[in-house]
Amino acid sequence: MKENLAIKPLIGFGDLKFGATKKEVEEFFGSPQEVETLDMEGEDGQVEVWSYWDQGHSVYFEKELKDICSNFETDNETATLFGKEVFSLSKEEIVGLMKEQGYETQEEEKEDEELILFFPDAHMQFVFENDDLILVSWAVAMDDNEKVLWP
Asked: Are 40 and 33 within 8 A, CB to CB?
């Protein structure tokens, strides 16, 4: 695995871009520790999830998009967002950082002890538990007609 763990909204993760093939992902992260196929909620499509438990990442491949990378998740504490170690930031600091980068839209959803902070214009979500960031998820951009906008 390469050490560049920069979260890049709408682009990818480190040097790995959305639209990467399974082979390219494997060259970057190595072999996944678990592979799972999930039905997409409310849709006919499926997604294959490669989990790298030791590294703290998951990579999603959309079946209907020819099995190319469309989404990342990480809970790796060394991951960065715009040069900052994102897991050391508070919710307010993340909101400020995202706004500095031009991402104004945000929504919140509370479920039990979890708070999910969405930035739809960045196709990102930040999951907090008891005020601590526990997961970052980000995806490729799509237009209003759900057409993928590759980086």
From this structure: no
Structure tokens at 80: 């960065």
> How would you class 45 by CB atoms within 10 Å of its CB: exposed for 0-12, middle for 13-18, buried for 19 or more?
exposed
Sequence-separated (6 or more) residues with CB below 8 Å from residue 124: 9, 98, 103, 118, 136, 137, 138, 139
Global pTM reads: 0.91
Print pLDDT tens along the chain (151 aa): 446 799 999 999 999 999 999 999 999 999 999 999 988 765 667 899 999 999 999 999 988 888 899 999 999 999 999 999 999 999 999 999 999 999 987 899 998 889 999 999 999 999 999 899 999 999 998 777 777 777 7
- Cβ-Cβ contacts under 8 Å for 92 (sequence gap 6 or more): none
Q: Pull the structure tokens for residue 112.
A: 């039990």
